[in-house]
């Protein structure tokens, strides 16, 4: 790999942005494209599919045979609330390849005894997230049932373009949440991205079952995320 290619990949990794390397099989020339910087419009289908799947692929772009390799930031899961569901997610998420953090200002819940091997931040999301910003490769799950804790990170996740934003609560609870978000000026399109009630509808009852339903929904959102116009050249 050429030094210039490695430097661009390191730049993307540091910024938690995806990158693709397009290798021309005839000439041996490699081109690096960092997410958001654009690529030729005629290459959109091949590159976008590789970015979406996270898997390398052979393709024909502009009548050239190429090998496309992709480098995605490791997916993160940020959970708002140190509750029983979070304890189950803390065991499951690493198995699925997610880095996980839990944020909860309630020190009676956010204790090291209840959460082993997971990053636990016993502080308000308003204080944590500006220093540890969310991004499109982060999923956010708000599970405290407390709007004083959940509402701010939900808005922050929508603003950051997180690939998944889910919130615990009944339809009635979510209806109240929607009204609060509207009052705060959150656009209807963004509100519509919130998965609530959270998790796939599998009839989950216990915290462990709910955690499985939530993680499955997050994985589905990651693998089927709509990249929209993010990589298209102007």
Tally the helices: what do you get? 8
Number of domains: 2
Question: Beta-sheet strand percentage?
Answer: 15-25%
> Could you state the order of secondary-structure elements as H and E?
HEEHEEEHEEHEHEHHH
Helix content: 25-40%
Question: What is the arithmetic mean of pLDDT?
Answer: 89
Oligomeric nature of the chains: single chain
Query: Which residues sit in consecutive blocks of at least 5 with pLDDT less than 50?
Result: 227-234
Order of strands across the main sheet: 7-6-5-8-9
Q: Roughly how many Å apart are the termini? A: 28 Å
CATH architecture of the largest domain, by name, is 3-Layer(aba) Sandwich
Q: Mind telling me the CATH class of the largest domain? A: Alpha Beta
The CATH homologous superfamily of the largest domain is called NAD(P)-binding Rossmann-like Domain
Query: Biggest sheet: strands, sense, closure?
Result: 5 strands, parallel
Tell the overall outline.
elongated
